[in-house]
Amino acid sequence: MGIIINQSIKGSFWSYAGIVVGFITTSYLFPKFLTPETVGLFGLLIAYSVLMSQFSALGFHGVTSRLFPYFRNKENAHNGYLFVAAVVIITGFILFVMVFFFVKPLLIESNIEKSALFVDYIYLLLPLTFFTLIFIQLDVFNKVLYDAVFGTFLQEFFQRVLILLITILYVFNIFNLHQLILAYAASVCFKGAFLFIYLLFKKKISFKPQLAFIDKKLRNEMISVALFSILTGLGNSIVFNIDKIIINQILGLSQTGVYTIAFFFGTLVIIPSRALLRISGTLIADAFKRKDLKYIADIYHRSCLNQFIIGAFIFGGIWINIDNILEVLGPDYEEGKWVIIIIGLAYLFDMLTGANSLVIAFSPFYKVALIFILILIVLVVGTMYLLVPEFGVVGGAVAIGISIIANNIMRYTFLKIKYGMQPFNAKFLFVLFIFAGGIGLSYFLPKLNLIVDILIRSTIFAIIFISGIYVTKASEDFNLLVKKLKENYLF
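and the corresponding structure tokens:
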């Protein structure tokens, strides 16, 4: 667990730093200085580029995650693995470009009335998709080399800093709107280019072909995993990006902007888990290779407990300050209140269920994930079209929330039946009671000046929650971390 804890702490630092930067940009600068249409454009460009990059990857990021342990050989440049990866993703991007120019007229026609701004900048999907594709593949490659931190730094912190800076340039009229949109796209693209340069500098990049290493059995397994990963990767992207696309089609770009801002606050709950799961996946894959189910069960349990603690702490802070958040956002975003609460609760449930997706993904039964994804696609698309016309952006949040919870229930049930893995114990109840106590107490506090109110509510909740977790010894890892901090900084 040492690698997980060490890299999780480093990754969490950048995640939390990114939360602070993103909060400034998304909660203050975007609502105050940008129109909801512009914010909606940003969200829509990201949603489409993520979908299209998953298609372009041709499932090879899944091959990297699952089969790289068989290629691992530092002295021999990992047996030419990156050459194969490069050929596949270049082929995939060429296919995407062909498809893009075929469907471009349809995208323009369906968006010209309600989302004219998106039509004006639809061409940005080409560079956004390419560099997102590069980042996805190289980030997975870097993770299987046991470096999950640098990708977190780029994705969660550095990109957010760039977006903050270009927004400030726009606020001071150094950038006009057109330049801001181009700079936003460049900021998103930059992480892929920078990760490539970083790996090149670290001498981890080698495109020397060694095709003789790939025998018939391994080649067939790679093809099988790639085909499966295309379906699951694209399916996952549809499930978690289709909301903005459907809301844009039904309600328009302005409401997409409201949804995008509100959704950001809900996703704050899940952001820290990415650091933990980045390195956990590599260790779970290696553990399955040596058939160490006890080690996997331990990772599963700890991920559930520690993520639940982190998620409850963040969601609690959001919940007790929801009225303050809406006051900062302004009247245009009032209907986003329940989007924040619903998405936050759904992601808290996702945190509670831990690394279930990774355990399934690296198990011999990994193909069952495809069944789950197909069910979720039908569920999320069906509920979106049912609820959004009736309840607007709140309906979209309910649809996504239902899908997140249903997905994790299916995963939990599968692992319980197949492996007898049951990660929950009484300590989870300790966390729940401490969380509820902190929330309950906040309702007895009087409403004060905005900044003072945020500080007092947040401080009281933090003291109750952190001290409660420590005193009850709910998490061995948390208490160990506190002990190390005491030894290193207090004594």
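(Above: one complete record from the training split.) The mean pLDDT is 86.
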